## 1
Amino acid sequence: MTIREAAAMLGAEIIQNEFEDLPLTGAYTSDLLSDVMANAKEGGALITIQAHKNTVAVATLVNISVIVLCNNRPVQDNDMLEAAKDEGIAVIRTKENQFTVSGKLYSAIHRT
């Protein structure tokens, strides 16, 4: 499943769309960025409500492909989207909560 396929499956809005549409290898759910740095895996999705530039910095360190913002979380400032664009990281937003998104992505990734 690619990033764009995941966004469509989740009914999510792509709010930073300048990225390579890579296949997702997994996902990690956390709002604690130090936890993400320690445990997230390369090539996956980060499922969070943290909508700021530091989230992109952490995603870059771990080589995350897409940040999934849950609960229709607004982006705090344009710096996040600019940083994500510079790094080629997709940012999508969904009205679903983190639990629901985690379950849907897990099922979809492990089904393919």
Note: The two ends are 7 Å apart (CA to CA).
## 2
Amino acid sequence: MFSVDIGVDLGTANVLVYVKGKGIVLQEPSVVAINKDTNKVIAVGAEARQMIGRTPGNIVAIRPLRDGVIADYEVTEKMLKYFINKACGRRLFFRPRVMVCIPSGVTGVEERAVRQAAIQSGARTSFVIEEPLAAALGAGLDISEPSGTMVVDIGGGTTDVAVLSLGGIVCSRSIRVAGDKIDEAIVRYVRRKFNLAIGERTGEEIKMTIATAYPKDEEEKFYEIKGRDLLQGLPRAVTITNFQVHEAIKETLEDVVGAVKEVLEKTPPELSADIVNKGIVLTGGGALLPGLDKLLSEETKVPVHLADDPLSCVAIGTGRALSMLNYLSGKDGKNHSMSSLRR
């Protein structure tokens, strides 16, 4: 009665926290700034993200999740604790139940690490749910019917593609290619094309400002980038176009398209017919890349729809899943897509 239900989209790029009855109460970057001398946390979230690439020797800004899984367990635990306290307030009489999303392709060890991190962060009970299932719930899709629904969730570290039916995942594919790999591709291209070194934050800004997945409908756009000249070692500014950015990210987008095609090839014929009628639903921050829906539709010959709020779908679905535990777990309490760990 007095406990709080919390859904956490523990993303490589951003953490979103959903509180039952309140909706999404927190959305911040998955970054932690730590003093190496004292091992104390200096900043978390947006404040820490401002420090990336700009810290003195004794301070380091860490992204504790890489490719959708925990890369630094202790820092992830501290970050989770900070966000849960910030979302719910420190004066909780009863510890909350926490549901955390995970990519569909994680190993058992990686899954246990996520659940244990939630417990250590103050959760009474922790559950995990696979990202495509959470994305479908958050997008308001009816996955309880014996009818196929296809979801493509493009986050910061992973792209999860899944076909859902009767409340579960029929076939899926998770690749560690998503928003971060697009940023890295832009950084590499600028280095190779202009002999200019730029940071990952600048690469992300270029992506968010002028990147496009479908340049056929675009007019030429220009963006000035500043960095360090690799030949002279001095600061320099160059101008890049949206067509050049597309050239930089083309191979990364092909990997995403390949994963979607792979799942479509594995889909049972009856469910394939449903997907042709309903189309593919795009969720996640990466789905906001202009023209991505057109590119996928052209490559797969299937209609592609962007979810109403792609960035928040997984977090909302993670929160909603807590009120559907009995249904999602099945009558026998067993389901591959969800499990719990009690302290």
Note: The chain has eleven helices and 19 strands.
